[in-house]
């Protein structure tokens, strides 16, 4: 709600879902292409290595954000409209 400022919330959710869907589609296409290429080249473990690497990098990114304090909830704000 903070991002939308209390308005157009459904628009933000719709945009988020659209962007997520495009990202998932691109990721699936890339993984399938890597899989086909790796099997043809005789390296069937390559897609698993690539997917594991992406997962480890994602986990490292979350850990880095947590250590830097970026994942903490912000202090609650009060406004005249909600008080």
Polypeptide structure, described:
- This protein is an all-alpha fold and 83 residues long.
- It has one domain (9-67).
- The protein is built from two helices and no strands.
- It has helices at residues 9-40, 46-67.
- The protein is elongated and about 60 Å long.
- The model has no long low-confidence stretch (mean pLDDT 87).
- The chain crosses the membrane at residues 12-35, 47-66.
- This is MFS transporter.
CA-atom Rg in angstroms: 20 Å
Distance between the termini: 17 Å
Q: How many structural domains does the protein architecture include?
A: 1
- The oligomeric state of the chains shown is single chain
| Helix and strand run | HH
Q: Give the biggest sheet.
A: none
Structural class: mainly alpha
Number of E-type strands: 0
Percent of residues in helices comes to 55-70%
* Whole-number mean pLDDT: 87
Low-confidence stretches: none
SS summary, helix count: 2
Short account of what is shown:
65% of the residues lie in helices and 0% in strands. It is an all-alpha fold.
What features would you highlight for this structure?
single chain, 83 residues, elongated, transmembrane
Which secondary structure elements does this structure contain, and how are they paired or packed?
Layout: H1 9-40, H2 46-67
